């Protein structure tokens, strides 16, 4: 279950889908809500940077099947081949934890519309274009 939630979170991060707009929107919202609930460790309806970091670490470790501390297209799946390049800061064809965390923190700050250091589900859905 945790790995499917992690993959849902990475899917949102790397979005690559060919579904109709309405279907994609409802499936993205469900995936976003599922990933949000998994990341909200204390159940307060907010995700702070510590929870984001913890969730990112868990997800990274679960997906890094060869334990080499980087994610390659084989670990992420064929759908993410093209999505790796924009995140691959050092251009080595794989994603390090630092590259993923940098991207997630940047997205966190962009989504935090009231700049309170925590995300609500509404902020996440709005930022992801689901609402």
Please tell me about this protein's structure.
- With 131 residues, the chain is mainly α.
- Helices cover 61% and strands 6% of the residues.
- It is built from seven helices and four strands, in the order ααβαβααβαβα.
- The chain has helices spanning 2-14, 21-39, 49-63, 73-76, 81-87, 97-111, 121-127, and strands at 47-48, 70-71, 95-96, 118-119.
- Strands 1-4 form a two-stranded antiparallel sheet. The chain has a two-stranded antiparallel ribbon with strand order 2-3.
- α1 (2-14) packs across α2, α1 packs across α3 and α3 runs antiparallel to α6 (97-111).
- Residues 14-19 have low confidence and may be disordered.
Which secondary structure elements does this structure contain, and how are they paired or packed?
Layout: H1 2-14, H2 21-39, E1 47-48, H3 49-63, E2 70-71, H4 73-76, H5 81-87, E3 95-96, H6 97-111, E4 118-119, H7 121-127
Antiparallel strand pairs: 1-4, 2-3
Helix pairs in contact: 1-2, 1-3, 3-6, 6-7
């Amino acid at each position: 279950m945790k790995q499917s939630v992690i993959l849902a979170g990475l899917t949102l991060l790397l979005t690559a889908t060919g579904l109709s707009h309405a279907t994609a929107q409802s499936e993205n919202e469900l995936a976003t809500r599922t990933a949000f609930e998994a990341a909200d460790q204390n159940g307060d309806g907010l995700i702070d940077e510590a929870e984001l970091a913890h969730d990112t670490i868990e997800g990274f470790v679960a997906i890094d099947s060869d334990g080499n501390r980087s994610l390659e297209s084989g670990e992420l799946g064929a759908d993410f081949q093209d999505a790796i390049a924009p995140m691959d800061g050092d251009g080595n064809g794989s994603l390090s934890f630092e590259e993923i965390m940098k991207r997630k923190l940047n997205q966190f700050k962009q989504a935090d519309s009231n700049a309170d250091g925590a995300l609500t589900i509404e902020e996440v859905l709005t930022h992801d274009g689901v609402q």
